[in-house]
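Progress note, sequence design subtask.
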């Protein structure tokens, strides 16, 4: 190759590189715009959202291969509480959820969006950390929850009425964890285990639980709604034993007290919840409160005297 030819090649190469660079620069400049609208919706489908609620441990749990995707410390799925990935009517059904937001949350002390609410379950019920609001996972879950509300608007009310599970009325006494323990041994251990630890998928634990734990390291933490005795009793009466709920109010009440007396992950900073303490539900399991009832009574009842006290406070103000 002559010197001239070599020079020519270099020029051609340089020219190619320059054109290439321009193309690359153009791609770099345009890609984020295009990708944001093209990539996110492609992943963040309702279908993915539904899978995230059903197979949360597998997709966001502590055993996920990519450490960045390990959002939850528990191996629960959202569907452990929101039965049928939220499609079951009544207690913890999600069809009406989308329409509830934005709304004021006493616990947060301000307005909350549906994304905030999903993250409250991420942090408390799932004992994890919040998902970025613009993440495909959050967008997918919210679009799935929105799709439930669309279906509900079309056909929900009549279906809901026909399938309403048994409702719960709190007995006018303190719940008895010891009585709850006996009922637990009789009616719950077949699935949840004698130690309440549930049953992990035998083939591979990354799939999460076949029967979820009711306490212990993989369960909801102390800041979760399910850690409130009335919320838990309402759920238990409506849903458990799974498939054939047959408990009395008394039994569901004592069972909730027993389960919520067992060890589980502690959430820190709970004293900052409910900045206006008068909005704090009477069965919240941690202080401080805007009343002088003992903590023990907030945990186990009787709840009627506390409800009457807060009702009397409201009257003059309104
Ligand atoms: C340990 C049980 C439990 C688990 C697991 C759980 N939740 Fe919840 N969730 C609750 C309770 C309790 C409430 C409060 C219901 C109420 O306010 O009456 C709630 C409320 C919600 C609401 C608001 C419903 C409404 O109508 O305002 C949404 C949305 C929600 N959860 C989504 C999720 C998602 C998504 C996951 C999984 C990432 C999840 N939850 C996991 C127990 C649970
Ligand atoms: C036939 C098996 C079965 C029996 C018996 C049963 N459960 Fe469950 N329970 C489940 C399953 C499965 C789930 C998760 C829901 C799902 O996957 O559909 C669940 C979920 C729960 C949850 C919410 C999720 C969590 O991990 O906290 C509570 C609380 C609960 N059960 C309490 C009870 C109590 C109390 C009894 C006894 C009265 C009971 N269960 C009996 C199968 C059972």
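Output:
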């Amino acid at each position: 190759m002559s010197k001239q030819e070599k020079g020519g090649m270099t020029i051609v190469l340089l020219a190619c590189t320059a054109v290439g660079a321009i193309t690359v620069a153009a791609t770099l400049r345009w890609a984020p715009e295009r990708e944001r609208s093209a990539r996110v919706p492609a992943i963040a489908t309702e279908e993915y959202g539904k899978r995230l609620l059903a197979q949360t441990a597998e997709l966001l749990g502590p055993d996920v291969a990519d450490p960045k995707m390990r959002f939850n410390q528990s191996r629960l799925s959202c569907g452990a509480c929101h039965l049928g990935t939220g499609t079951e009517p009544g207690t913890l059904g999600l069809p009406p959820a989308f329409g509830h937001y934005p709304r004021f949350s006493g616990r947060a002390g301000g307005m909350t969006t549906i994304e905030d609410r999903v993250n409250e379950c991420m942090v408390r019920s799932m004992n994890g950390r919040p998902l970025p609001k613009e993440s495909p996972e959050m967008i997918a879950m919210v679009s799935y929850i929105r799709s439930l509300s669309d279906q509900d608007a079309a056909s929900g009310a009549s279906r809901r009425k026909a399938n309403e599970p048994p409702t719960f009325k709190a007995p006018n006494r303190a719940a008895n964890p010891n009585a709850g323990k006996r009922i637990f041994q009789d009616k719950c251990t077949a699935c949840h285990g004698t130690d309440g630890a549930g049953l992990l998928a035998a083939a591979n634990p990354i799939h999460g639980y076949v029967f979820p734990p009711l306490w212990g390291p993989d369960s909801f933490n102390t800041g979760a709604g399910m850690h409130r005795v009335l919320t838990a009793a309402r759920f238990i009466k409506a849903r458990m034993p799974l498939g054939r709920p047959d408990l009395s109010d008394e039994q569901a009440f004592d069972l909730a007290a027993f389960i919520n007396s067992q060890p589980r992950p502690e959430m820190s900073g709970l004293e900052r919840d409910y900045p206006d303490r008068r909005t704090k539900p009477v069965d919240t399991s941690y202080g401080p409160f805007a009343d002088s009832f003992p903590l023990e009574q907030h945990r186990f009842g009787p709840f009627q005297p506390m409800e009457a006290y807060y009702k009397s406070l409201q009257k003059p103000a309104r």
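The two ends are 96 Å apart (CA to CA). Work on this subtask will continue into the next period as scheduled.
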